[in-house]
Prior knowledge:
Blueprint: H1 8-11, E1 14-22, E2 44-48, H2 62-69, E3 73-78, H3 98-110, E4 114-115, E5 118-119, E6 122-125, E7 135-143, E8 146-149, E9 152-163, E10 167-171, E11 175-179, E12 186-192, H4 199-215, E13 226-233, E14 240-245, H5 251-274, E15 286-288, H6 299-306, E16 310-316, E17 326-328, E18 331-332, H7 333-345, E19 351-352, H8 363-372, E20 380-386, H9 388-407, E21 412-416, E22 422-427, E23 434-436, E24 443-444, H10 447-454, H11 461-472, H12 476-484, H13 488-498, H14 502-518, H15 528-539, H16 548-557, H17 563-569, H18 577-591, H19 593-598, H20 603-614, H21 620-634
Parallel strand pairs: 3-11, 14-21
Antiparallel strand pairs: 1-12, 1-13, 2-3, 4-7, 5-24, 6-7, 6-23, 7-9, 8-9, 9-12, 10-11, 13-14, 15-16, 16-20, 17-18, 19-20, 21-22
Helix pairs in contact: 4-5, 7-9, 11-12, 12-14, 13-15, 14-16, 18-20, 18-21, 20-21
Amino acid sequence: MKPGSLNYARLGLKVGLEVHRQLDTAEKLFCSCPTVLRKDGPDVIVIRKLRPTQSEVGEVDRAALFEFEKGKTIVYEAYSDSTCLVELDEEPPHELNREALEVALQVALLLGSKPVDEVHVMRKIVIDGSTPFGFQRTCVVALGGSIEVRGKTIPIQHVGLEEDAGRKVAEDAETVRYRLDRLGIPLIEVATEPVITDPEEAREVALAIGRIMRATGKVKRGIGSVRQDLNISIEGGAITEVKGVQELDLIPKVIENEVLRQVRLLAIRDELRSRGLRPEELKADFVEATHVFEKTACKVIKRALKAGGVVLALRLPKFAGLLAEEIMPGHRFGKELSDIASALSGLGGIFHTDEMPAYGISDGEVKALRELVKAGPEDCVVFVAGEREKCLKALRAVLERAREALIGVPRETRMALPDGKTKFMRPRPGAARMYPETDVPPIKITPDYIRELKSRLPERPEEQVERLMRDYGLSKKLAWQVVDADFLPLFEKAIRKTGVPATVIATTLTETLKSLRREGFDVYKITDEQLLELFSLVGRGETFKESIPEVLKWLCQHEGKTAREAVEALGLKAMSDEELRAVVEAVLSEKGELVEKMGPKALGPLMGAVMKLVRGRADPKKVRSLLEEAIRDRLPGGGTA
């Protein structure tokens, strides 16, 4: 079955969506530190180990236990002026940020959600290292509500508010490094009911929710400021949570690939059952095979053995050929087992006989390995190389995943990749991960406050578009692009301060930046201040709108420089009238025969020739005026019949 041939209705696709967006508040959610991401190096380093704890009901969350078993050391990078003891869990959290709470309530009211009577902060266990205290603080601010997409009502489960996690900046087999500038930034969450039945519908729902969030004027912009999580299932499969989809246009591809993965995992399950595999046949019989590879040409195994490691093997009865089955484009079932083994053990991955001979491993070594573990033609052998304990961890993970293959689709959390495929992260968490935060008092939400808040709600997205069309003469398409690109505040500020036509500003902030991004330029490096300065230069006639793309490209490549520096470096400073006249005269001297042959119609090709020489340094209207004047002077009777 190919991705494009999936029948989502017949497969019973259900998708629930969670949209997370950073809020652009002055302070973090539980302290007074600024909500800024730093580019310079940290001045504080803290090293820790995290371990899971029991919930109120005496249970340990399986996802937390999985992270703990990785055994990694966590290195935290902090800043003395933008992180504090709250982030390092050396001081209790402060009161919940009221500004962030109000923004979350505004979003809830725009969605028709019912605010709760009291906001209670909870702790959600997270011990992957992204928080030094082993949990994330979160709260529900409203329940219910809905949003209309394609004429369909999409119910909202809840609107929540939580602190963002630290951002991972490096990881190896032993350690993971997080930067704490992002930790604690307020994050609003809107979760839908799992009623989405089509990948494209999911994208449109995320877009509609994002528009509501942006309408507040209080959300951050740029890569990493918005993340979508998807809960995806099909009939007979299982709910898979895919985290961290950052691009709207990637949502349909992620869903398509996950559905395909579940369909093919169910097919593998059915094949294993048809082969008569029973769960009790999958045993933890780990066999040392180091001697088989003593003279191997495989670089990975040679390196592991030289470092004092071993080779351990596991027979998977009746699995022959299945690890080579493709379950997503370019992603085989063996990769599923490898990802899980790598995540838990820290090894680079696994080898298996479905892909042998390869990687310098010979036919003779494969034959000897199969004989050693007593593998028949219908069996597959998985083997790993490295430290003994890591090898044991890896093979235990493979064995557990092989047992799950008999059930079908495991309940797990996966990470979205830039190409639309996904990668195993950890098992799905359970109810044991949540418990009350006793250090933050509840906040009452009174009816009077909600009535007052309703009286000053921001414009809805469709109202913003109507105003942009009415007040600035934008087309409907361009108005929606401004709203969807998160540039409405900057757009209106640029109009007030620079005098540049609205369409020029709008086109630059949407189509021009989008085009540059497609060309590979990192447009997120361009700041609002640089854009405003560039528009000001255009407004004062120091450069012209034609120079805008080249200036923006230069700014992407020269971080921290100014728009004026870009204009000067590129030679795009506006020409004087004398300089422009000289260029016009030079072109006419070279191409004067066009005037004789074409008369006034020579304006077009001459205009092109001049603009090619002066683009970005002269106003096209002035160029046209000078050419028209020059052509008239060269024609008998001043260009008239």
